[in-house]
Amino acid sequence: MSTHSSVQPRTLCANLPDYAEQPVMLEGWVHSIRRLGGLAFLNVRDRSGIAQCVLEGELANAALAPESVVAVSGVAVLAPKAPGGAELRAASVDCLSAAAPLPFELNKKTIPARLDTMLDHRALSLRHPQTHATFTVQSALAGAFREFMSGRGFTQIFTPKLVAAGTEGGSNLFPVDYFGRRAYLAQSPQFYKQMMVGAGYERVFEIAPVYRAEEHDTSRHLNEYVSLDVEMGFIRSEEELMELEEELLRHMFGEVARTCGPELALLGVELPMPRDIPRIPVAEAQRILQQRYGKTSPKGDLDPEGERLLCRYVSELNKPAFVFVTRYPRDIRPMYAMPAPEDGTLTASFDLLFNGLEITTGGLRIHDYGQLADSIRERGLDPGSFAGYLDLFRYGMPPHGGFAIGLERLTSRLLGQANVREASAFPRDRSRLTP
User: Fold this and answer.
1) What does the record note on quaternary structure (predicted)?
2) Residue 329 within any structural domain of the chain
């Protein structure tokens, strides 16, 4: 291998066709190498994609292990059969960092390993083009969420993740030693986003991690995940929230379609476009499941199989597999959920199911101080334990509501992934705390 007499500016693989007949330098990882006669065809991968480098003579014999980091200099030429329509005729190849033997191959269409093995070596499996595409799409979803909310007059907020009490009561909290006092990792920014609405900001959103100390060990649960939270004041119906989320998802999916075409093609994904999403009360959903599939559901709720079957039912009506499930009973909703106007045993709340999985929970909140304090007592809790949250309600709180979208669930459902861990860069579940 020769060394550079002069260093060329770096060119990304995807931009190689723009530099036909010009000297360029590619830097990236050895994706694969194939030798044919006196030639070697070296595929180099960087953040933009893969480019082919043609090595001749002494360079063709270079010992380059897969995933080694290299710098390849030469002249770009148009080549219709090469990835991206161009290739690099190499004049020099420098190995910047040699790779050790790999636990699995990364130059296959999919990684030939179990998901647990891939997660054990997560920093390596993240390099695979399909995995890389997953997080490019996820980044676009989060960016489009921020863009949409900012464009609708919402203020981005940043709320504490160390809290004195849970937002929903219960025991699914991670305790933390806080200078000799008991604190917890926040299971939701719910209280704080309501407080920011009442503090005069009216419309707020947050993109941040939340923590649930739940003993689940399933393909749909994480103990730390990213929540896309929305809260808005001066609304009178949860219908306003559902309309907002439908418009939001159309914008997010549209931005993914606009900016992630190569990634969607690589993943074989055709984006749905949510429009006129059905609203089905949970009691009606249970009747549909019983009559159509013989499915019995838990009282006032849907289990995972029920969610999958209801989405199947909706998709059979020639609609994308989105459905809002509404009117959940009060006894399975949080203490701040607003009772439904026509029946106080139900709530003005909803879940959004997408491709067989709940990705959103939302609804109207109680905004009257006395009513909220009573609701807390009805749960066997002491309003005094929530004084910091309740205090603002004493000084005037507008009618309000909101929702939260699980980013990993949204990503995995959109891309048709079987396990939500595939949409988490470094998942945290009941058994995984590293890497």
Assistant:
1) Homodimer.
2) yes
Q: Say if residue 213 carries a ligand binding annotation.
A: yes
- Structural domain range at position 236: 123-423
Check the annotation: does 316 bind a ligand. Answer: no
Is it the case that residue 309 has pLDDT exceeding 70? Answer: yes
- Chain-centroid distance of CA 115 in Å reads 18
Encode pLDDT of 98-113 as tens digits: 999 999 999 999 999 9
Over residues 275-294, the pLDDT tens digits come to 999 999 999 999 999 999 99
212 annotated to bind ligand: yes
168 is annotated as contributing to ligand binding: yes
| 432 carries a ligand binding annotation | no
Considering the domain architecture, whether residues 395 and 335 belong to the same structural domain is answered as: yes
What CATH number is associated with residue 145?
A: 3.30.930.10
Give domain status of residue 371, yes or no. yes
Residue 4 resides in a domain: no
Instruction: Tell me how long the chain is.
Output: 435
Last residue of a domain, one of 97, 132, 163: 97
For residue 52, is pLDDT > 80? yes
Sign of CA dihedral 108, 110, 113, 118: positive
To the question of whether residue 236 is assigned a binding role by annotation, the answer is: no
Residues 283 and 340 in one domain: yes
Separation of alpha carbons 189 and 234, rounded Å: 20
Residue 3 has pLDDT above 70, yes or no: no
Residue 409 marked ligand-binding? yes
User: Is 35 assigned to a binding site?
Assistant: no
Q: Does a structural domain hold residue 5?
A: no
What are the residues whose beta carbons fall under 8 Å from the beta carbon of 57, sequence distance 6 or more?
Answer: 38
The verdict on pTM exceeding 0.85 is yes
> CB count, 10 Å around CB of 36?
8
User: If we measure between CA atoms, which residue out of 310, 351, 322, 277 comes closest to residue 414?
Assistant: 322
Check residue 13 and report its DSSP letter.
G
Q: Is 407 annotated as a binding residue?
A: yes
| Residues 286 and 327 grouped into a single domain | yes
Any idea what the CATH number is for the domain that residue 20 is in? 2.40.50.140
Q: Is residue 173 annotated as involved in ligand binding?
A: no
342 annotated binding-site participant: no
On the CB side of 284, CA atoms within 13 Å amount to 10
Based on the fold, state whether residues 293 and 154 are members of the same structural domain: yes
